[in-house]
Each structure stands twice: as C-alpha cells, then as structure tokens.
C-alpha cells in the first residue's frame, strides 16, 4: 500500500507554490508548465524528480541570472526616488534590450545609475532635509534587531564608519526594499531546496518500506516474523525521516510570522511619519507583510503534509506488526 498524505493534491500545492514564489524564473516557468500540462500528474512527478534541478541549473546561467537581477532592481525601486535605476531596469526588461546591455548593467551600469540617483537626490535635497533623529534611531535599531539578515546589513551600511545622511537617504530610497526582497528570496530558495531533498529521501524510503511490507506478507511462516520486523523498521525509518522536514517547516512558520509582524510595524511607522523618506517604504512594507503572510500559510501547509506522513508511517508500522 502506498503511503500518501492527500496525494496528489499535496504535490500540486507544492509545485504551485514554486510556480508562484520561487525566485528563479526558470523554476516558476517549469512548475507552471507541469501544472497546466494535459497530463499534470505525470508532468508534476517528472518536475519533482528532475525538472526542478534542471530549472535551477538553467537559472544559474548568466543570461537568466542577469534578468532576475534586473527584475529585482525594477521591483524594489521607484521612479520617484531612484529614477535612473528604475527607468534603466524597466528598459532592460523590455523586448528591445540586448543581452550585452543587460550584462553591462549588472557589471557596471547599476552602480553608475545609483551614483546618478544620489546626485539627483542631493540636488533636490528634500529627503535629506526631512531626516530627523527618530529616523536615525529607527534605522540604527534595524541594523541590530531586524529579523532579516539582508535588511540588517543594509541598515548597518547606512551607519558604517564614515557614512553620512546621504547613505541614510539611500537606505530609505531603495536599500530597505532591496534588503527585504533578498531576505524573502533567500528564505524561499533555502526552503524550496531543503523540501526537494526531503521529498527525494522520503520517496526512496517509502518505496523500500512498501517492498519490505510486501515481502512480509508473502513470507513463509518460518521467516515471517523476521520479515515483519524488517518491514516495521522500514516504516519506522520513514517516520524518523519526517522529523527534519517537520522541524524545518515549523521554524519556517515562526520566521514568516515574525517577518510579517515586523513589516506590519514598519508600515504603521511609515504611515505615521508621512515624510518623503518614509513614503518610499509604504508600498514595500505593505507588499512584504502580504508576502510573509503567504509564506506562513505555505509553511503551514507543508508542515501539515509532513505531519500526515508521520502519522501514516506510524499506522503502517503498526499494520505490519499485525500481519498474520
């Protein structure tokens, strides 16, 4: 008997999550292709077996990684606060841009556009003039206490030795949103990779346990007890190997909840401050809260999946012990 936890819907849910949320566009495209296939069960199984790894490998090729970088830049900047970066990223995402132009932007163009935006903000002067001590204290606190490593690094950079108010303005203008996006992508990628490894291991162990149970049912009276013991151990191994996934997804839920609460607080602070610097973080804060709430829900689904596998492994272990 095949051990299942609401299959195939759980496979579909996981692949749909990857289609919506994985940072690599190649993974999202491959996952969607499996979901909309004329034979989705077969396509999803193939994606989980080898398609995911192939899509990740493709994503690591330079051309696609350049596109992912440019898309991230475009989505974490605004024309109001970073017009040079934002407009150039927008152009490079269009159909008329060349791969050579995108490569040049990633290598040197991005930093050059950042410098031009800094000059632009200096000339306008509104954001720097609006800075108050409360803003400095808030960002300094983020450098030590924000739940996201990338946000902490970005905030720390704004207060490094030799930093000026220009660096603090840059943090509000794009550093905060960029750090937030990177934290979300790192979270998604880490758990996607871990879950694929866990699923690969558990699939192999389930197949071994099924074979051992079959052997126990077909064993002669002289060897039946030995075969039953072997099958019980095999199912016990299945249950044991759910622990890393169950623990991992429980921790993921905790991280997602903390991040969502953090961004809810940031949104409230930005709405209360209503200055030109804080206005730039309102939309990213709102989006970040929603994204982390979605991660919380997805982690909850995956935790339930692995808990169900554990229970079914326990049931199977008991079942083989009762084989006559």
UniProtKB/TrEMBL annotation:
Residues 237-252 have a biased composition (Polar residues). Residues 217-231 have a biased composition (Basic and acidic residues). Residues 217-252 are annotated as: Disordered. It comes from the Bacteria. This is Uncharacterized protein. It comes from Kibdelosporangium philippinense.
């Amino acid at each position: 008997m095949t051990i299942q936890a609401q299959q195939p819907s759980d496979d579909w849910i996981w692949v749909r999550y990857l289609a919506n949320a994985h940072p690599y566009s190649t993974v999202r495209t491959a996952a969607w292709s499996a979901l909309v296939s004329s034979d989705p069960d077969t396509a999803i199984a193939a994606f989980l077996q080898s398609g995911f790894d192939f899509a990740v490998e493709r994503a690591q090729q330079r051309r696609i990684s350049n596109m992912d970088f440019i898309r991230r830049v475009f989505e974490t900047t605004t024309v109001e606060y970073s017009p040079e970066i934002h407009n150039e990223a927008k152009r490079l995402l269009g159909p008329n841009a060349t791969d050579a132009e995108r490569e040049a932007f990633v290598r040197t163009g991005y930093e050059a556009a950042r410098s031009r935006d800094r000059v632009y903000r200096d000339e306008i002067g509104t954001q720097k003039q609006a800075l108050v001590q409360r803003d400095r204290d808030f960002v300094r606190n983020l450098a030590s206490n924000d739940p996201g490593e990338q946000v902490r690094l970005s905030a720390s950079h704004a207060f490094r030795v030799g930093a000026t108010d220009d660096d603090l303005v840059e943090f509000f203008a794009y550093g905060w949103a960029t750090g937030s996006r990177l934290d979300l992508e790192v979270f998604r990628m880490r758990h996607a990779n871990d879950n694929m490894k866990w699923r690969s291991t558990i699939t192999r162990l389930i197949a071994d346990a099924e074979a051992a149970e079959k052997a126990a049912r077909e064993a002669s009276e002289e060897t039946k007890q030995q075969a039953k013991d072997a099958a019980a151990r095999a199912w016990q191994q299945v249950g044991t190997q759910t622990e890393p996934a169950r623990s991992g997804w429980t921790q993921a839920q905790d991280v997602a909840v903390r991040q969502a609460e953090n961004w809810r607080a940031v949104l409230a602070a930005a709405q209360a401050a209503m200055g030109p610097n804080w206005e730039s973080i309102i939309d990213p804060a709102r989006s970040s809260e929603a994204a982390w709430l979605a991660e919380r829900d997805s982690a909850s689904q995956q935790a339930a999946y692995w808990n169900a596998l554990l229970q079914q492994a326990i049931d199977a272990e008991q079942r083989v012990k009762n084989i006559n």
